[in-house]
Amino acid sequence: MIPAEALFKVLEEKDLVPPEVLAELRAHVARSLKTAKPINAAMAARILVEQGYLSRLLAQRLMSQIEAEWSARNPRQKIEPLVLRPLEGTPVPDEENIGLADEPVDLLPLEEEPPRKTPAAPSPPPRAVPLEPADTTSPAPSRDFEPPPSSPTEDLLSELLPPTSPTPATVPPVTTWTSPRRKTPWESPLILFGGGGILLLLFAGVVLFWSLNRRSGDDLLAEADADYHAGSYTQAIHKYTQFLDNFPRHPQAGPVKVRRGLAQIRQAVQTQESAAALSAIKEVLDQISPLPDFHAEADAELTAILPPLAENLARAALQKADPALVEKAQEALAYCRRFIPQDKRPVAKLDEIATTLELARRRISETEELAQTIGRLKELLAKGDLDQVYEVRRKFLQNYPQAKNNAELIRVMRRVAEAEKDRVKFVEPSPAPNPPNRPQVEQTAVFAFLKKGEAPLPEDRVSVVSDQSSAFALEARTGKLLWQRRIGESVGAAGSFQMPCIVEIDNHPAVALPDRINRCVACLELSTGNSLREIRLPEPPAECALATGHVGTILGSSRRIYLVDFQEEKILRELILPQKPAFLPVLTESPPRWYLVGEHSNLFVIDPDKGTCVDVWYLGHEPGQLCVPPVIVGEYLVLPMQKNGQTAQLRVLALSQKNAESPGSQADEASIQDIELPGKLLTPLQVQESRLSLITHGGHVQVYQLRARERQKPLALLAEGKSPGGLPRSDQWVAPWVVLTGESLFTADTSLAQFELQASAARLIPRWVACENTLAIAPPVIMDSTVFYAYRRPNRPGIFVTAVNSADGRSYWEVHLSDPGVSLAPSASHQSLVAVTWSGHVAGWNLGEKQFPQVVEALATTEMPTVPSPKVEPLTCSPVPGLWVMTYPGTTALLKIDARSDPPKQQLVRFARAVAGPLVPLANGCTVGLEDGSLVWLSCEQETPQPVAYLGPTVPGETTHYSGAVALKDQTLIAADSRGHLVKLRLEGNPPDHFRLERQQSHRVPFVSPLAQLDKLVVISDAENNLVFFDAETLQSTATIPLPGECIWGPVTGDNLVCFMTADGTFFWLNDANSMRKVPMGNRSPVGLPIRRGQSLLVATSSGELITIDLTTEKITDTARLETPLSAGGTLLGNELWLGTLEGCWLRVSLDSLRLSRTNDSASLSATP
Q1: Of these four, 295, 614, 758, 761, which has the most CB atoms within 10 Å of its CB?
Q2: What is the mean predicted confidence (pLDDT) over 694-721?
Q3: DSSP line for 110-163
Q4: What is the distance between the alpha carbons of residues 319 and 333, in angstroms, rounded to a whole number?
Q5: Of 679 and 828, which is predicted with more confidence?
Q6: CATH code, domain carrying 1112
Q7: What average pLDDT score do residues 913-926 get?
Q8: What is the C-alpha to C-alpha distance for residues 1057 and 1016, in angstroms, rounded to an integer?
């Protein structure tokens, strides 16, 4: 008998059975050693096969291997055969007669069971004499020797098969010799056949009994499975248990154990709370997870059971803020990740559960932090440190924003708001500083009519439009520009827009403008633009509005409120708030109240007559949440609140509950209605009597009607519609506007549209659309039956204003304003100036003009083809005096302007390819580079010029363009391309009809900058930040100077100097290759050509500064700030310097009137008395 330990060692070496299973089986074997039938290797293998850990084939192979090894270690002992000896005196018959075998019979000992008794031998005849027994002196076989079974599975199948008649391996009983001729009845063949038949019938009965029992086990299993799938888990558990008890060796016994555990899990989930069910699930999984059929049976079921359980626990933990539930939910989540296969795991659901758990942990910590924060707020409130209160609250809500509506926190902040009343004060205004010294500047504004006509309005009507940096006054009837005033860039809050404030000054209609440049509120006569009053402030004004009569309110850049008298030209009082107001106050007349919304948290109610704070309401809003100014509709205050990045909300407060007789009440008591909007708000709400209209960023238009009798929801949606303009392109920005007048509504975004309000249908019916593909910059202005619309055009400079008929959208006139100047030169007679704008408009005025500021209408107008980007600046040159050529990189057209005729002539020349630059004058014409790498020359004297082209060497698949070119004498041109080639061309023919290549030179690095001429040299920058010098005659490189950075401006040639600027803010100039000098200029970018005055260099910058550089000391000695961005500069005519601005004006600066204040770094230019 092979011990079971031999099998265990093989299983451990091959890791075929889990260690815990082997340990349990060893213990079972150890207990069996004390019984009458210990477990050997064959019996252990059978147990493993029954439990499903080994297949039958694998068990047979293992037993064959163990048997071979065991036989090799324990060889069999030869058993001596028994020799029968005849009795003395008895004749010994021949072997053949008695039928003895040739070989002796080996007697094998039986196994542990005692040998079965053989049937008694038949009684011998009386005359037979018994033989003498065998010699017992022969050595007996060893009792320790256990012969192996005849096959490896003999022991495995021995207990499964019914018992059969044994085949004892014992020596036949010793009998006496009888004569073979005489037989007893027991020797009949019938006895043998009968015994065999009985054994066969017995075997058949056993098989039949086993088959019947097996069929009934399958039926029981089917019933249990049906109960399980029907949800009868108690019945299923009971039947599964019966099946395992009655049929432990059934092939489905292993899977049934797993199914019973799953039924227990289902029952626990169905009948118990989530936490108790998790405990039951843990216990069951610990029992069934080691089983071999676990994954095949349980994977799908656990995928359906565990995630909902973990989700329920996580939600309960979040709702109750219970740390114990958080641990349970975390444990359930871990079971999901452990027992659900990765390919079936619901990753999104598990991530959501993990997020919920994190929120639960935050809520638990939030409760603790909230208690500490409230205690800290109360301490600060007791000390009177209110500013620190808001800081503590801000930091707390930054980590726990959902605690914003906590009742205890709101109560504490209400007490803080009540304490804020004592910090609101009216004080005497601070003295205004002296106006800054600036050079004496005279302005000429240029405008151009794109369409002329007359609107049905009186001649004295004036329309004022603003783009928030400049104000324009137009004759409403014809559109003629009356005056233009720069007021500086807007410093108001996002979403604020103030229409021009019209006031009465000395019985003249005037407009009050917040002049941020001069730190004042300028009151200008409406028709002429002459200054009537200037109220200087301690700071630049952001917004101004008329309060009552000639008294107005001013919001400073630091968010202080000033009460001013426009007629008396003085500041009456200054209002100091503990918080910066977001917008100007909203006013009511009876009782007189100012409603000022703070930058965050509070709303202040001010009595302007008494100069006191009546009440402070705690709103709890965050900085920037109030997206546009509040408005008053009837007795209600409407606060537009931004909810998130895409939607907004209207919060309606009842003002009737907030007056002087009821101080100390809070805003939430008066907040009676919240209206959700379909999008975010970018522009102010518009109120007409009892109606409120708005338009969202997505073009949704809504009109609300005030219903006085509905106290709980006073504002009701009257009608809504959709603007036809919609959203602009992603690279454009536009603010949508809406204006309601009577039963007509106008929208302005990417078009101007009119709607008819039909309250009965709750709809806005579109009537007409005009000015499509435009970008509105201000709300439409309605005068009688005329609508004024101010807008920009995509990729066009300046602003446009048109007047349209409100009935059908037909345009009366259209004017182009604020078109930047690009070039200016005297006329052929030198009696007037001719200016060209970025759009190609041509304007002229007399040099002897004494009245400034003046307004000039363009003599000739045109529209250049579409510009690729508004940031692309035009290319211009003047081949002959009074004649300009102009184009834009990326366009396929070139504009010729001949100002020598009256009126000026304009001609567009088209190319097959887009312009890439440069544009240089050459032989009464111009040469321009195209994107295909060609240079084209055009005559400016011919009506229909024939282009002359040169195409240099190209590489297939590569784009080559010319980065710079410079014209020499004798119709010679030197050009540099982007591949590092330098060519020298001569224009030949009469008239010129071809280019001749004179020389060509290659540089190892591509060129990246324009080309400049310095005496007999040409200078250019390459891609390795080197300044390279070439001989203009031979094109041989003569010098190379490394630069500290990329060349971002220049090189340009002016007054025998080459100037350029690098990316590190260093300005360089040189008059030969050995004398390069520099001065730091910071982030100021030059514009136009520098002008040399003796040993000084005057440089204009795009930010509106005139910088004087001392060429000897290499220092900036003077800086004059013009406070307006420049587009063109330095045209010197005598002692007058003309500069073009981005707002369509030309500035004349008298150099004789400047007194230079010498300093080491910079100085301001002041006007001479």
Answers
A1: 614
A2: 92
A3: P-SSPPPPPPPPPPPPTT--PPBPPPTTSPPPPTT--PPPSSTTHHHHHTTSPP
A4: 18
A5: 679
A6: 2.40.128.630
A7: 90
A8: 13
Instruction: Say what the pTM is.
Output: 0.70
Q: Tell how far CA 1074 is from the center of its chain.
A: 53
Cα distance between residue 617 and residue 155, in whole Å: 94
State the DSSP H helix or E strand holding residue 844, giving kind and residue range, or none if neither.
strand 842-846
Assigned domain for 98 exists: no
- 3 state SS of 1052: strand
Please report the pLDDT score of residue 706 as a whole number.
Answer: 95
* The pair of three-digit structure tokens given for residue 895, joined into one six-digit string: 């504009």
Instruction: Read off the pLDDT of residues 974-989 as tens digits, 9 standing for 90 and up.
Output: 999 988 899 999 999 8
Cα–Cα nearest to 746, from 714, 781, 777, 713 = 781
**Confidence bin at 134 (pLDDT 50/70/90):** very low
Identify the burial level of 360 via C-beta atoms within 10 angstroms of its C-beta, where 0-12 means exposed, 13-18 middle and 19 or more buried: buried
Angle between helices 347-383 and 323-339 (to 10 degrees): 160
Strand partners, 801: 790, 815
User: Which of 58, 73, 88 is at the close of a domain?
Assistant: 73
Q: Is residue 1121 part of a domain?
A: yes
383 belongs to a structural domain: no
Each residue of 706-723: b (16+ CB within 10 Å) or e? beeeeeeebbeebbebbb
d(CA 757, CA 763): 7
Q: Determine, yes or no, domain membership for 1104.
A: yes
- In this prediction, residue 212 carries a pLDDT of 55
What phi, psi does 412 have (nearest 5°)? -65, -40
Q: Which amino acid is at 783?
A: M
Q: Give strand pairing partners of 581.
A: 598
Average pLDDT, the chain: 83
Task: Show the 3-state SS of 150-206.
Answer: CCCCHHHHHCCCCCCCCCCCCCCCCCCCCCCCCCCHHHCHHHHHHHHHHHHHHHHHH
Q: What is the 3-state secondary structure (H, E, C) of 657-699?
A: HCCCCCCCCCHHHHEEEEEECCCCCCCCCEEECCEEEEECCCC
Residue 704: name the closest of 759, 649, 752, 760 by CA: 759
| CA separation, residue 1102 to residues 445, 870, 1083, 1107, 1167 (Å) | 18, 16, 10, 11, 22
**Within 10 Å of residue 973's Cβ, how many Cβ atoms?**
22
| Spatial separation of the C-alpha atoms in residues 310 and 274, rounded to whole Å | 8
Distance CA 445, CA 282 (A): 85
Mean pLDDT of 1028-1050: 93
Q: What is the SS3 assignment for 1076? A: strand
Domain span holding position 720? 689-818
Residue 349 exposed, middle or buried by CB count within 10 Å (0-12, 13-18, 19+) = middle
Q: Residue 586 in contact with residue 630, Cβ under 8 Å?
A: yes
Q: Where among 767, 802, 818 does a domain terminate? A: 818
668-703 pLDDT, tens per residue?
A: 556 889 999 999 998 999 999 999 999 998 899 999
Give φ, ψ of 597 to 5 degrees: -90, 125
Of 711 and 1012, more confident: 1012
Count of domains observed in the chain: 3
Adjacent-strand bridge partners of 485? 471
Instruction: Please tell me the total number of residues recorded for the chain in this structure.
Output: 1169
pLDDT above 70 for 1024: yes
Mean pLDDT check: name the lowest of 134-148, 176-190, 509-523.
134-148
From 335-339, 400-404, 1018-1022, 1138-1142, the region with the lowest mean pLDDT: 400-404
CA distances from 1090 to 639, 823, 1152 (A): 53, 15, 18
- Please name the residues in contact with 201: beta carbons below 8 A apart, sequence gap of 6 or more: none
Q: Which two tokens stand for residue 935?
A: 């240079």
Q: pLDDT: is 171 or 998 the higher one?
A: 998
Q: What is the pLDDT of residue 147?
A: 45
